[in-house]
Give the backbone structure.
Amino acid sequence: MEVRAELEPVVLPAALEHAILRVTQEALANAVRHAGAEVIWVRLRGGPDQVTLEVADDGRGFDPGPPQAWAAGGGLGLRAMRDRAADQGGQLTIDSAPGAGTVVRVRFPWTTR
């Protein structure tokens, strides 16, 4: 498996940096365990008012269902990522479908002040 990283240099508050690290770890672990991916892309982009993390793979994909379903059973890793994002005011989205790979995207509010 190949991992490609596109990481913009950003200086973040420690709590936000930790949340990004943990979401990245969980998304990578899910791709390795479940996706059968050949390539995983990790992208981090900073802007004046938000930081965006994206972990994408070319694996088998899945039906993530609505985020509300994550609280009712399976998807422990999905819930953990969502909760970590929410703790920092961020929003997690997952774009995936069977046979189509997966994109985990988290947008965190942030300011460069």
